From TrEMBL:
Keywords, comma-separated and alphabetical: FAD, Flavoprotein, NAD, Oxidoreductase, Plasmid
EC number(s) stated in the UniProt entry for this protein: 1.6.5.9
Protein name (database record): NADH:ubiquinone reductase (non-electrogenic)
A Pfam family the protein falls into: Pyr_redox_2
Lineage: Bacteria, Pseudomonadati, Pseudomonadota, Alphaproteobacteria, Hyphomicrobiales
Enzymatic class: oxidoreductase
Length: 269
């Protein structure tokens, strides 16, 4: 990659492009993260008398609310990923930088960034906005991550989709009835919006999308279990919505279990 910046003035390209705070006439706003918050912050700075630099280690923005549809093959990954760089075309004071931030020095007001193919460099700032989002939480059981992927990125969605489709392929191939039942049993932990949406989408995938794709198994015979540590699904929403959601999930064939906490996860379940 010869150039990583879309700014037509090439403000950040080259060894001497990152100016020191003393030589810069215009203030610089640096935003770390190209998610919803980062892009909103960049757009809100459109009329600011400042240079805005949006830094992200990916060159695309992910519409996270639809990750569950990518995980169940309803949507292709590219349908929920939009390139960040076109923002700089519409917003004249914005520069998009592909890099991973490795450190922040508040005393010198600089950021340490690692750019693909270019290595480390320092980016000075006058104002800093950190909008990097939240990593998935396993509530003190990080060892679960090896067997139970979260749903935060396109890689996560693709991993889950592969797990689901591979399970049906193995169920179709095996002659062992107990192994077939195991492969066609899916457990989701957490009945917040993502867990509920994913469980419903998986149920529809099994009953409709894959309905006639196999000869030896019926995907609709899958067991989909949704576990929740609280006393109801969607615990942050109104109880009436929780009751309606539970009824809808059960109608789709999802087994909802509340008041259940996961203590162990391994390769067997």
């Amino acid at each position: 990659m010869n150039a990583i910046l879309a700014d037509p003035t090439n403000k950040l390209a080259g060894a001497d492009a990152i100016q020191t705070e003393q030589t810069r006439a215009q203030k610089r706003i640096v935003i770390i993260g190209g998610g919803f918050a980062g892009i909103a912050a960049a757009r809100a700075s459109e009329r600011a008398d400042a240079e805005v630099v949006l830094i992200d280690r990916r060159n695309h923005h992910i519409f996270q609310p639809l990750l569950y549809q990518a995980a169940t093959a309803v949507l292709a990954p590219w349908e929920i990923a939009a390139p960040i760089r076109p923002l700089a075309v519409k917003q004249r004071n914005l520069t998009v930088m592909l890099a991973e931030v490795t450190g922040v020095d508040l005393s010198s007001r600089t950021i340490d960034a690692s750019c693909p193919g270019l290595g480390a460099r320092k980016v000075p700032f006058d104002h800093l906005s950190v909008a990097t989002g939240m990593p998935p939480s396993y509530f003190g059981h990080d060892e679960f991550a090896r067997y139970a992927p979260a749903l935060k990125s396109l890689n996560d969605a693709e991993a889950i989709r592969t797990k689901i489709l591979s399970a049906f392929e193995l169920a179709e191939t095996t002659d062992d009835a107990s192994e077939r039942a195991r492969q066609m049993t899916f457990v989701l932990v957490g009945a917040g919006p993502t867990g509920v949406e994913l469980a419903a989408s998986m149920a529809r995938m099994a009953a409709v999308t894959l309905r006639n794709n196999f000869r030896r198994i019926d995907p609709a015979d899958s067991t989909i279990i949704l576990l929740e540590g609280g006393n109801r699904v969607l615990p942050t929403f109104a109880e009436t919505l929780s009751r309606k959601t539970t009824a809808r999930l059960e109608k789709l064939g999802v087994k909802v279990m509340t008041g259940v906490k996961v203590e162990k996860v391994d390769e067997q379940g």
